Amino acid sequence: MLDKNGIARRIAHEIKNGMYVNLGIGIPTLVANFIPKGIDVVLQSENGLLGIGPFPIAGEEDADLINAGKQTITTVPGSSFFDSALSFGMIRAGKVDLTILGAMEVSENGDIANWKIPGKMVKGMGGAMDLVASARNIIVAMQHVNKAGESKLLSTCDLPITGLRCVKKIVTELAVIDVLPEGGFYLVERAPGVSVEHIRNSTAGKLVVPDVVPEMNPD
Q1: b/e for 168-194, b at 16 or more Cβ within 10 A?
Q2: Is 173 tagged catalytic?
Q3: Distance between CA atoms of 104 and 192, rounded to whole angstroms?
Q4: Which member of 3, 50, 135, 159 lies 3.0 to 4.6 Å from 113 by CB, making a disulfide possible if both were Cys?
Q5: From 46, 105, 173, 189, the catalytic residue
Q6: What is the pLDDT along the chain (219 residues), one digit of tens a residue?
Q7: Quick one: CA dihedral 79, 84, 88, 90, positive or negative?
């Protein structure tokens, strides 16, 4: 199985040259550490930054440089700072090519739930609803099952929905999965050492399995 860094490393290989990419809170922020060499990409944070670099080395943090998850970050040459109103203007205008988000649940239709658990206090929905409504492409970085071992890839989401039919690809500790346009999960790759049967048993929604499922290379 992959750890969180392994998930982020695999997702980084989905980023293409010249993209503007928004990194959501949680596992997605780790993607900044694994951008492949030779790829020219601009990472955006909705709190007002274009040009995110890797996480800083211990002892070199700058408390004034943070991402949307309040983690300290670095910048790259040409980085730009602006207010959140301009940042969300970029998002709502469709200027972001790819959004990478965490999720608590994803349905086989590509619905995503990632902002609220009923009965628990939340500070607000954050920027996720703007991102899922406006991004050209959405990849989800998440755990395949919850702490009780129950699947988080479902026929329908049980938690409050953030966006409908918007997720295109999911990367978990077990697999890389595409969401089919007609509905259903399609198994693209399996994590090193993970069997197809284990992935099938860990997926509550409809899972389409091809004859051959390659083992992913997270490097």
Answers
A1: bbbbbbbbbbbbeeeebbbbbbbbeeb
A2: no
A3: 23
A4: 159
A5: 46
A6: 899 999 999 999 999 999 999 998 889 999 999 998 889 999 999 889 999 999 999 999 999 999 888 899 999 999 999 998 999 999 999 999 999 999 999 999 999 999 887 767 666 666 888 998 888 899 999 999 999 999 999 999 999 999 999 999 999 999 999 999 999 999 999 999 999 999 999 999 999 999 999 999 866
A7: negative
Q: Are 36 and 12 in contact (CB under 8 A)?
A: yes
Q: How far apart are CA 157 and CA 86, in angstroms?
A: 32
What structural domains does the chain harbor?
4-30+83-208 (3.40.1080.10)
Strand partners, 190: 175, 215
